[in-house]
């Protein structure tokens, strides 16, 4: 599981993600060895500064990583303006060879040229009971990974299309809040954004400050409710 959000601003786009990876036991066919389950933190957003593309990986990380690598290397520059068909074609090729238990994939794709754009990619079920690759251009924000996490509220309630740097705190707060609500599967923070100057990956120092601020904002919001004092009058009795 993971939590990732993409946002579209007036002058660019961003992708924010947690960084927690899970490694499950591997059982060989002869059952001679079984590994332990463990987790670690590492970036989930792959970025090519030279080509001007960033791709996040969510859900099944092995298959999502293959999709991300192929988009980063195979998408042609002439397709950057409208890459949906080409991305879906790459996805279908990966889907054909993916194992049945590894077909849950979500990716957010940020493209710099000819103008910053955000796309959501997934393997989705069809009416015939099979999966297919879908890619959609996003005009506001998009969620992938733990897309039923209540932290989605922050984007639903407060997203506005503004300069991209002003949206970074909101995106970071969403990821940090998602960790609080699903601490076993989500932790860490990374943010990548692009504007007229190119792609930028936030430093560890900036991410640490954002994480601390997000926890502070949560406490302040909670205090607004829990410290509010007023006299509550009883409603008049109504006989009916």
What's the arrangement of secondary structure elements?
Elements: E1 3-8, E2 13-17, E3 20-23, E4 38-41, E5 45-48, E6 53-56, E7 58-59, H1 61-74, H2 84-97, E8 105-111, E9 117-125, E10 131-138, E11 141-145, H3 153-158, H4 164-181, E12 190-195, E13 198-201, H5 204-226
Antiparallel strand pairs: 1-2, 1-11, 2-12, 3-4, 5-6, 6-8, 7-8, 8-9, 9-10, 12-13
Helix pairs in contact: 1-2, 4-5
Question: Which key terms come to mind for this protein?
Answer:
240 residues; alpha+beta; 6-stranded antiparallel β-sheet; 5-stranded antiparallel β-sheet; 5 helices; 13 strands; 31% helix
Tell me the total number of β-strands: 13
| SSE arrangement, N to C | EEEEEEEHHEEEEHHEEH
Unreliable sequence segments = none
Strand content: 25-35%
Mean pLDDT: 92
Most strands sheet: 6 strands, antiparallel
**Count of alpha and pi helical runs:** 5
What structural category do the secondary elements indicate? alpha+beta
């Amino acid at each position: 599981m993971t939590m990732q959000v993409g946002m579209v601003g007036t002058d660019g786009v961003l992708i924010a993600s947690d960084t927690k990876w899970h490694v499950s036991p591997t059982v060989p066919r002869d059952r001679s060895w079984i590994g332990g389950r463990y987790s670690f933190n590492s970036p989930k957003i792959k970025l090519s500064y030279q080509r001007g593309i960033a791709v996040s990986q969510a859900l099944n990380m092995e298959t999502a990583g293959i999709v991300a690598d192929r988009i980063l290397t195979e998408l042609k520059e002439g397709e950057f303006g409208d890459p949906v068909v080409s991305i879906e074609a790459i996805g279908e090729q990966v889907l054909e060879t993916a194992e049945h238990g590894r077909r849950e994939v979500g990716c957010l794709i940020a493209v710099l040229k000819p103008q910053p754009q955000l796309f959501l990619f997934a393997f989705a079920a069809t009416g015939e009971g099979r999966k297919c690759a879908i890619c959609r251009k996003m005009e506001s924000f998009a969620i992938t990974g733990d897309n039923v996490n209540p932290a989605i509220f922050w984007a639903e309630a407060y997203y506005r299309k503004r300069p991209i740097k002003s949206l970074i705190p909101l995106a970071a707060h969403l990821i940090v809040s998602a960790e609080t609500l699903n601490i076993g599967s989500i932790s860490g923070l990374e943010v990548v954004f692009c504007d007229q100057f190119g792609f930028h990956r936030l430093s560890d120092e900036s991410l640490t400050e954002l994480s601390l601020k997000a926890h502070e904002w949560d406490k302040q919001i909670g205090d607004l409710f829990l410290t509010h004092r007023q006299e509550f009058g009883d409603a008049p009795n109504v006989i009916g």
